[in-house]
Amino acid sequence: MELQKGDRELEALNIQLNDQDSLRQYKEPYDHYSVSFIPHLFGCSLVWCGNIVYGKEPSYLKFRAIEVIARVPYYSWISASYTMLTFFYNDPAKAMKLSEVEKYARLAEDNETMHVVVISELAQKEGKVGFVRHTLIPMLFAFFYFWSSYILFLLYPRYSYELNYFFENHAFDQYDRFLEMYREELKQKTISSDFLNWYGRSPRTQYEFFMSVRNDEIIHRNTSIERIQTDIEKTSERN
Prior knowledge:
Layout: H1 5-16, H2 20-27, H3 37-54, H4 60-70, H5 72-85, H6 92-126, H7 131-155, H8 157-181, H9 183-187, H10 194-199, H11 206-238
Helix pairs in contact: 1-11, 3-7, 3-8, 4-6, 4-7, 5-6, 5-7, 6-11, 7-8, 8-11
């Protein structure tokens, strides 16, 4: 797959975050962001239910469930933006703002799709993937997440972005913990995936792959808050 400009910039940032100092500097500004009550409630519910079903510690099968769910908000933003554009065709500024959301959301959705496809391949090699626990339940979580994120985006986009911040922060923590727990083991495991090659990444080991996924999640987390700040700045400019 030929990478577009936005993809190339995100891929360059992903590689940069392999350096621990760069990662720390990138994530620190938003580490203590205070999420509003409603997205915090929804986010806690998702994480709590996920920990009940899949355990608190990271695993291949838990990551599969996380990634089935993690791609949902980006699709909900695309759908909500498409809905809202129906009412704002005569407002160029609003249309451009919504189109920018769609453009980023498509990149992020493609990225999360890569995660779930490749991790599903790895999960099948590492253990049995049951239909109810590892397919049906994540789909139910995703259904809840989609409509929560969609409705929040229509009513108050900030809440939808904050909900995504909360969940992506959880995903980052899980991958970071996984890399810490199984560092040497993962470095010994090679990885081969046609989908990963098609996407445009070529990690040599599972350690490199999971590190790149971890970096993706922190980029998604920070971008959610950057979207809020951009909206605030543009609103201030109009006023």
